[in-house]
Design brief:
The protein is mostly helical. It is 59% helix and 5% strand. It is built from 14 helices and four strands. The protein has helices spanning 16-38, 40-61, 68-75, 84-102, 110-120, 160-177, 182-196, 203-217, 228-234, 236-247, 258-282, 288-298, 305-311, 317-329; strands spanning 139-142, 148-152, 333-336, 343-346.
Length: 350
Amino acid sequence: MREFDYTKLKNRSWDNEILGLVAQIHECKGRQELYLKQKPNELEKLVEIAMVQSTEASNEIEGIRTTNTRLKQLFADKTTPKNRDEKEIMGYRDVLNTIHENYEYIPIRTNYILQLHRDLYKYSEKSIGGTFKNTQNYISATDAAGNSFVIFTPVAPFETPSAVDAICDSFNRVVDTKEIDSLILIPTFIHDFLCIHPFNDGNGRMSRLLTTLLLYRTGYVVGRYISLESKIAKNKGLYYDALEECQKGWNEGSEDPSPFIKYLLRTILAAYRDFEDRVQIVSEKLSSTEIVRRAVGYKIGKFTKSEIMELCPTIGKASVENALKKLISEGVIVRHGGGRSTFYTRSDAY
């Protein structure tokens, strides 16, 4: 088994893009802390939206889905899961909620990772929750002709427990010294976790839950208000490309983690920028129409009612609908299509 020693990261030279991303995220983190002190009640309304989006998006990446109506009912405990997908969605919801409420008390240790994985499958008939893989798994791809082929072979089952122990031990030693910026350390840990691929199923979802946990524990709580999983889902092609590029030479310990570090840092920075946009919208005492007008001003190209509702968490669905109708009558926006395919554009785009 390859060795895991994150102290070696301090000897690496990082390019200007990585250093720039780290610096910008540090600045955003400082501003967020100020916003949270000034507008705690308004910003708390972003939490529920982010929770639903994170659960939906992280499962969607793995092909696990349900309808928007069912998803909201499951979150509100107004129904029970009726199929395998909904059971796994409920498990993700519960684990994410555990992390949100208890991250300070969830150490990065193998037994805690196993417990989180156990809870991910607690509604499922599968008996794999909370146990490491017992068969060799492979990372595969499909070519243009539809032929499947192996692009990466993870750690063998018998080596998996010690590998997870090793990355946890090394992470904890290094994060405590603060010799390496946690924004470099966290993507490296997550990439190693994905390359170990410690479970028969649920590795991708666990990696995203652990990303949230690690960021929270090191003071980066933007995922509480803006869904990181949703951003990954929207760019999952780039996500898989970065993973594949960093897997080259991983088993020999000669990989370059930079592509995955850059990908995750860009995702975190985009979330912070979205957070600041929403802060601007909720920071003033405005009428519903003016709140929606301001939200529309942030949109470029097509946008939907649900996207505007995300930007306006302080007002309800009916208020958003009425405000959109008023902006249409004023000629500020143009409505296109009908029913579920309805979208809007700003009239100044023509």
